[in-house]
Write a structure and sequence with these properties.
The structure holds two protein chains of two kinds. By secondary structure, chain A is mainly beta. Chain A is about 0% helix and about 45% strand. In chain A, the strands form two sheets. In chain A, strands 1, 3, 4, 7, 8 and 9 form a six-stranded mixed β-sheet that branches. A three-stranded antiparallel β-sheet of chain A has the order 2-6-5, with no helix packed on it. The radius of gyration of chain A is 13 Å and the shape is globular. In chain B, about 0% of the residues lie in helices and about 50% in strands. The chains are: A mainly beta, B mainly beta. Chains A and B meet through strand 3, strand 7 and strand 8 of A and strand 5, strand 9 and strand 10 of B.
Chain lengths: ~110, ~120
């Protein structure tokens, strides 16, 4: 089955930029979606189709996808961005949705 | 407002079944799908399957085939997920989420744009 690999944790100072990677075989050929999950809460969609933002999501959240790596970038990080972030794709081989392993973002 | 409201927490014994409900409000229920995702304590998200509200067709994760059934009731805008033969490792928070089809995009572009708050299912003897 298709595997998406994320770093377990990323630490960033307020005002700096956080980059969260999602690795998968030829992931650049897939559409990648990103979800933010704060402690004790349900996930929230922050980026879809690699780089589109739902209404209400700040422009500070952006995405890119090429080759074997998709990236969620959070610019001008704020304390409220501290959360787990999960990437997700559709695997056509298994006809299953697949989530990444998740990355905990800590704001120093 | 647009939301998915899930049923309350459940405690079940091993071997039992659980049925979780997910009631949609303030959007056209049949224009989207419903997916179910679970999260064991301290773990990541695990996709369980999804159902087309329009025609009732469902697709389940291979790991859960034979134990899970997803259904919808369009008269009440409610989706259901039943999991049978429960084991301790089924202990998790179970989420329903709306599947957004985009503008008639193929399935590989669909995403989950609205989530319920989750239902904790505890399996313990």
């Amino acid at each position: 089955s298709y595997v998406l690999t994320q770093p377990p944790s990323v630490s960033v100072a307020p005002g700096q930029t956080a980059r969260i990677t999602c690795g998968g075989n030829n992931i650049g050929s897939k559409s990648v979606h990103w979800y933010q999950q704060k402690p004790g809460q349900a996930p929230v969609l922050v980026v879809y189709d690699d780089s589109d933002r739902p209404s209400g999501i700040p422009e500070r959240f952006s995405g890119s996808n090429s080759g074997n790596t998709a990236t969620l970038t959070i610019s001008r990080v704020e304390a409220g961005d501290e959360a787990d972030y999960h990437c997700q794709v559709w695997d056509s081989s298994s006809e299953h949705y697949v989530f990444g392993t998740g990355t905990k973002v800590t704001v120093l | 407002q647009v939301q998915l409201v899930q049923s309350g927490a459940e405690v079940k014994k091993p071997g039992a079944s659980v049925k979780v409900s997910c009631k949609a409000s303030s959007y056209t229920f049949t224009s989207y799908g419903i997916t179910w995702v679970r999260q064991a304590p301290g773990q990541g998200l695990e996709w369980m399957g999804w159902i087309s509200v329009y025609n009732g067709n469902a697709n389940y994760a291979q790991k859960l085939q034979g134990r899970v059934t997803m259904t919808t009731d369009t008269s009440t805008s409610t989706a259901y997920m039943e999991l049978r033969s429960l084991r301790s490792d089924d202990t998790a928070v179970y989420y329903c989420a709306r599947v957004n089809y985009g503008s008639g995009s193929p399935i590989n572009y669909w995403y989950f744009d609205l989530w319920g708050r989750g239902t904790l299912v505890t399996v313990s003897s």
